[in-house]
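Lecture 7 notes: from sequence to structure.

We start with a single chain of 152 residues. Read the sequence below before looking at the structure.
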Amino acid sequence: MRSILFVCLGNICRSPLADGITNKIAREKNLDLYIDSAGTSSFHKGEPPCENSQKVAKKYGINIYGLKSRPIVPKDLEEFEIVVAMDEQNKRDLLHYGFKKVYKLGDFGGLRGKDVPDPYYFIGFKGFEIVFDMIQKGVNALINDIQDGKNI
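Now the structure, written as tokens:
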């Protein structure tokens, strides 16, 4: 079974969305994947995904209500084969933490290496729609690469 960890700063908006989207796709395609999400900080430890992330996920038939924010922990270094950061700062933090190989979600799906921005920097709900679309494109491409046997 392949394991994927999605990481953003607080684990309340972007990485839970990536977690939920990937779980939905894995179920639909009957893929044997272990998927989780975490934050590079413990600012929101134990909190559910933010309201707007839950709202945009629900709009697209994805349930992330049961997820709880957690920070990266040492066992993640050994437990996850594929580690995916939402932006360049998350990637640097993960490499500093000791992960050997970290991908950025923007490296997949024609996103041309872009960071998946924190939706809190947008005004209103539209930012969550934009971020959801970017995450969905990146996750679909990542899953396709895994299915195609690419060396990830």
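The chain has one domain: 2-144. Keep this in mind for problem set 3.
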